[in-house]
Specification:
It is a single chain. By secondary structure, the chain is of the alpha/beta class. The N terminus is likely disordered. About 45% of the residues lie in helices and about 10% in strands. Strand 10, helix 15 and strand 11 form a beta-alpha-beta unit. It contains 20 helices and eleven strands. Among the domains are: about 130 residues, no CATH class; about 45 residues. Helix 1 crosses helix 6 and helix 16 runs antiparallel to helix 17. The strands form two sheets. Strands 3-2-1-4-6-7-8-10-11 form a nine-stranded mixed sheet. A two-stranded antiparallel sheet has the order 5-9. The radius of gyration is 22 Å and the shape is globular.
Length: about 475
């Protein structure tokens, strides 16, 4: 079987929808610019999905119209460009994938029912209209108990506390410098008044009836009071079409965990269409803990099993695997673990999912700077996945066609020439993780012994620069 050779009859509905949208959208249109929004209320910024850079929400505009949280003047400009067949630069990741003849996220997102239903209306719009999104992600608070290596003070209070005490990491451009997170980039603490959070709650009664997907991220949502304000609202106002989603590191204290689990059980008692639990995990065992400093892998895995056991109805769980260069060594173990969970918990429908979005920043954690041997390692993983593909005779147990396509896309991106200054990125890799070990009491070579040659190569570049 070659990549992309599945017959139409054997393709999943999800993949078929994306391929149909590839034919219909034209060269530039992406329905997510209208129907999806990620709101970062801690800094008053948004984007349509995780690929484009964040842009500022005008605080004066939301005083007049709270829907300007989504319908910013900047976003309307991007919509007009797309309708005119022009490709916004901020969407370069998708254009790059399409240049390599791959389905991009604009095809997948636009093909999903919550977006596709408005295709004709959007295609015939001017781009100036205010739109109520059907897919909303929101970050209410940057409070977080982890310091993931690729994260920042914008999304983690633990990161903010560390750099406030110890300063920036000594990379070529000072990483996570306290000076950088001032002004617009300063996260507004939960203890302070936040006009963007206030505007959200003013918008919420009008927004809620239109929502098909609502996802809370962070920070760590299990530690945020706004999460439970949403839960209370949903319990009082059930929505049979709502997919309610929460992203967590599953490593919070036991009291917070039990409170959360109790709420989720109540919500999954027929109050919504579906509850999706997203779990952030980028590798296996102590290597996963290294990437996401503060993570307790065994506790996370126990809670994954507890969630799947104790919340058996109207629920699924998705692993969000941020594909960075430290993921490459234990991704096979994580995929095997996911396959094992599918065989145990997925009977009547698929309850265990995963996605593999690529990391682009910081550059020193990019897959693109790894040697060819790591590309080959992922190619072998891809070949193993084919042998474990889902079949009609045994559904829900194997890998899905679009999961293969996504990993194939990640491998293609890994080989692309988008990142050009490899020497600088390798030097920064060594500087960053040397300081990481010093500050956090970790040991890179003990945790990643198979990467010794790579580590020494990065050390060489650090000495030369």
């Amino acid at each position: 079987m070659n990549k992309g050779d599945e017959s139409a009859a054997n393709k999943s509905k999800f993949l078929n929808s994306a391929e149909q949208m590839e034919q219909q959208l034209g060269p530039a249109l992406c329905l997510a610019k209208w129907k999806q929004v990620s709101l970062h209320l801690t800094t008053g910024m948004n984007n349509s999905c995780y690929h484009p850079p964040l842009h500022a929400i005008n605080p004066d505009e939301i005083k007049i119209d709270v829907s300007a949280l989504h319908n910013t003047a900047y976003k309307k400009q991007q919509r007009r460009m797309m309708l005119a067949g022009e490709k916004p630069t901020e969407c370069s990741y998708c254009w790059n994938m399409e240049d390599q003849n791959k389905l991009s996220d604009r095809h997948y997102r636009s093909g999903e029912p919550w977006a596709a239903v408005d295709f004709e209306k959007i295609k015939n719009s001017t781009g100036e209209e205010n739109v109520i999104p059907s897919y909303v992600e929101v970050n209410f608070n940057h409070a977080c108990n982890l310091k993931c290596s690729y994260c920042s003070p914008q999304f983690s209070s633990s990161w903010a506390d560390e750099v406030a005490r110890l300063g920036a990491f000594p990379t070529s451009s000072p990483h996570n410098s306290p000076d950088h997170f001032m002004g617009q980039r300063r996260p507004i603490p939960a203890r302070e008044s936040n006009p963007y959070v206030d505007a959200f709650w003013a918008w919420w009664p009008d927004l809620y009836p239109h929502l098909e997907h609502f996802r809370m991220t962070g920070g760590e949502p299990l530690l945020d009071r706004n999460t439970y304000r949403v839960f209370d609202y949903v319990l009082t106002n059930p929505s049979p079409k709502l997919h309610l989603n929460v992203t967590s590191n599953f490593s919070v204290d036991e009291k917070s965990w039990q409170k959360y689990l109790t709420y989720v059980k109540a919500i999954c008692d027929g109050r919504i269409e579906h509850f999706m639990q997203y779990v952030s995990l980028d590798g296996w065992g102590d290597q996963a803990e290294y990437m996401r400093n503060g993570l307790d892998f065994d506790l996370l895995w126990d809670r994954v099993n507890q969630f799947l056991t104790e919340v058996p109805n109207y629920s699924s769980l998705t692993f969000i695997i941020t594909m960075n260069n430290l993921s490459a060594t234990s991704l096979d173990k994580l995929f095997a673990g996911i396959l094992g969970l599918r065989k145990v918990y997925s009977t009547d429908y698929q309850r265990v999912w995963f996605d593999t979005p690529v990391l682009r920043e910081p550059a020193w954690q990019s897959l693109q700077i790894l040697p060819e041997s790591y590309v080959e390692r992922l190619e072998l993983l891809w070949a193993w996945m084919i042998r474990q593909i889902e079949t009609e005779e045994e559904p829900f147990k194997g890998f899905k066609d679009y999961e293969l396509h996504r990993l194939d896309r990640d491998i293609a991106w890994m080989r692309s020439a988008q990142l050009t200054d490899h020497s600088r990125a390798k030097a920064d890799f060594y500087r960053f993780f040397s300081e990481h070990d010093r500050r956090r009491g970790t040991d890179f070579l003990k945790t990643f012994p198979e990467m010794r040659s790579w580590w020494e190569e990065c050390a060489y570049h650090a000495r030369q620069s």
